[in-house]
Amino acid sequence: MRATAMSLPRHALRLAAVGVLVLAVSVGLTGCTPAPTGRSATDVEQQIESIPGVENAVARWDAVQSGFVTRQTVGITITVSDGYRIGDADGLIVWLARQAWSLGPKRPGSMGIRLEDSSGKAVEWGWKDALVKHGWDSPVTVGDMNSGGLLILFDSNMVSVAGESWPGPVPETPANLFVKN
Question: What is the reported pTM?
Fold first, then answer.
């Protein structure tokens, strides 16, 4: 004998109705707007490398696990071409914070900045004055910035120049970030 709606117990019909409802809601919700995502590392690298005075750029987005907490972080390393120096430290740090805020599949909680010459030695670029100008007077530095360290900024620093909404818009490249010696 074939089961019909009339021959099934009431609780089975209710369970089937709930299942159909859950399926319908699930299908409906998947049609909602997807979570936003930022630009790819390749897009950021290409924009940075298009600037005269930049030999190479590496941009990374990583999820860093610490216990039960996962933090998203962005790292940007720029190799400055021989014969060039940083022309506008303030403009550079703001622009890099905006670059970081536009990058990755999730909102970053921190960013690391490293500027180096073609031999891999850290470049002095006036980052301390630029941080003070923006009230970012408590950065975390790993190593000695003059001998190859990494400057780390937090999401509050990026938000202060790029806005709360993530991902931020693709920042236009300002003039004179890098100038000839």
Answer: 0.76
